[in-house]
Amino acid sequence: MTALLMAIHILAALIWVGGMFFAHMFLRPAALTLPTEQRVDLWFGVLSRFFPWVWGVIVALPLSGYGLLLTAFAGQKGTSHSVQIMQLLGWTMILIFVFLYVAFYRNMAQRVRKRLIPEAGLYLNRIRILVSVNLILGITTVLVAASGRYG
Ligand code: HEM
Q1: Does 80 or 25 have the greater pLDDT score?
Q2: I need a labelling partner for 28 at 20 to 30 A (CA). Which of 69, 80, 90, 123 fits?
Q3: CA distances from 82 to 75, 102, 150 (A)
């Protein structure tokens, strides 16, 4: 059970942080060379495929994390600093994602469907900023989580 919970936890973190890293580091610079309309369409195509996975991830991460705390580590790891920081950063990331989805992504999708491209681009830019924040938080979380036992 512990191995399964840990596998789910790590896979979820990998998909989320890896996806944001790829988008920010590789896709964004490449897409910047495109004309605005194509760039917005490309990002809509990417985000509309990535975000359903992120919804799955934000359910799987806390469930598997608290599953680990309740079973394998039953109490003792709950007080360790690295797990406390992981929870704080994890919930912050989740709130940021839910906010950017509700406040920006849904508006962007609406504008893309109505072909209001410049407005959609404004929302895309706001999404990019919050995804960058989450990428930094995500990398920090993984570093804290993985190095906690050595500290
Ligand atoms: C939201 C609540 C979360 C809880 C309750 C939680 C809980 C846990 C627990 C109990 C462990 C095992 C600790 C250990 O082996 O010392 C763990 C490991 C881990 N967590 Fe989380 N976690 C959460 C969120 C996150 C997030 C958001 C990420 C990354 C984006 C993350 C990444 C990791 C990684 C990479 C490990 C493996 C550390 C290792 O064993 O090397 N966790 N988590």
Answers
A1: 25
A2: 90
A3: 14, 30, 10
pLDDT tier for residue 54 given thresholds of 50, 70 and 90: very high
CA–CA gap between residue 53 and residue 17 (Å, rounded): 12
127-136 residues labelled b (16+ CB within 10 A) or e (exposed): bbebbeebbe
CA of 26 to the centre of ligand 1 (A): 26
- Global confidence as pTM: 0.93
One-letter identity of residue 1: M
H helices present in 23-116, as ranges: 28-31, 36-70, 81-99, 106-113
Ligand 1 centroid, distance to 9 Cα (angstroms): 7
Best probe residue, ligand 1, of 9, 15, 131 (max atoms within 8 Å of C-beta): 9
